[in-house]
Amino acid sequence: MSDSGGHRTSDAPLVEVRGLQKYFYEQDSLVDALLRTDPVAVKAVDGVSFDISAGETLGLVGESGCGKSTCGETLLRLQEPTGGTVHFDGENVFEMQNSDLKSFRRNAQFIFQDPFSSLDPRIPIGRSVREPLETHDWPWTEPDVETEATVRTDGVPRDRVAVSVAADIDKVVTPENGVATATVTVRQLASAADSGEEERGRDTSDTIEATVEEDLTIGVQTDGDRIDVDVSVGRSNKQLRKERAAMLLERVGLSADQRDRYPHEFSGGQRQRVGIARALALNPDFLVLDEPTSALDVSVQAQILNLLSELQAEFDLTYLLISHDLSVIRHISDRVAVMYLGEIVEIAPSEKLFRNPAHPYTQALLESVPRVSTAEQDRNIETLSGDVPSPRNPPSGCRFRTRCPKVIPPPALDIEQPAYRTVMDIRERIENRSLDLDGIREQLANEGKSTGTDELVRELEERLIDTDLDRREAENVETAFRAIANDEWDRAAELLRAEYESICETVSPELQDANDHQAACHLLDDRSVAEHRDRDGTVDSRE
Question: What predicted TM-score, i.e. pTM, was given to this entire model?
């Protein structure tokens, strides 16, 4: 864990996430228990793993609702996890209690998506920034830290100078190797008239001047040949908190004079700056940035992103940047993790991922990004088919298979991808019983047409088939439509499953480690396909 000054004590990855799960349960109230209703799990985050090194920015990208924000909240224990582990600087976050958990909260902070709702509208922004300082009783002093002074003299014999350093200067001075050091200079003035005005870090006595480089208070007294110098913090904890809040507001581009204003008096970008200042108050190592620019204008987005980059270098910060905006992710991230329906499907260095995406979902995301070039204005954007499945009942195997344009057909089946995708979409709707046959019959009747099986099958074919099917596929689909027309849904689903079941639905792909570029897709692992073929060259449906 980092010490109170924000300095790490280990060279291992700062954040290690393994198998993180967060489920929300429906139908789990006392009434449901009395009625013996089984709870339904909404699998918001399901088995997410990644590392973040110190000083790195990992971008977490995906569609709205894929579990990105829940992942960030859970790894900081703003949400309690369902399973998995998170290690922060080598320590298990989910096992922390009391003082250990409070220390972790100092070192890991969250910047929320909506800068207005994350600020208390009833208190001024200066107090909002000071609030974490008061909650964690900042500034801190450690009894085990020693204090000393490095003394330089100019025109004064060193043996005449005695320096006394207060035991609590580590409130202001960051200790190194367990020692907080004040840098003191004592020099001889030409005359008392040269003493000038006294300042906090400067004091004079007769013709002797003493200064301290750090933000401390110094006092000097002369007694004959003896020069006594006292170094101390010189301010109350309350005053130190006010000074730090003012400094942070200035650092994020606001004025300290604005500290008594309320959140509604600021623009969205200014409010987000307040949120950033508050997150930095305790000098953390790690920040989770949850869509920090999504509510801002484009020009303001660029200002906030540049500010975050500057602060990262200045304060040695590590970021988890959550966003659905690929341009934001590319601008600031060192590596990118792509998330779909609660799982990581690809993770790679930023430029590698944007230049050569490996997973079909990542490819589809990048393809959907509008481009400024006039040469791209006639580009045909191929959007993903289907809707995002519900996390209450995610698809088996690869969760992206229901929308994937490259789903793997059975090895013995010779079929073009558009035709296979069409058959798979029909099969899914039959399995989910999401075809409104009664509504179709009613419409046929209103149009004066027959509502018999033949007319119903033709209407289904017209509505659901938008590509040319080979004779075999057309016959199989027609047979399935006739089965559901006779209310034989299970037989129709079994017919299509037996013919068209894919490895993508029977086996969950794992992240394939190809150097520093990983993707969870069967297309990238020929061995996975080979292991699930039977002797006839077909996928073994028993898996």
Answer: 0.86
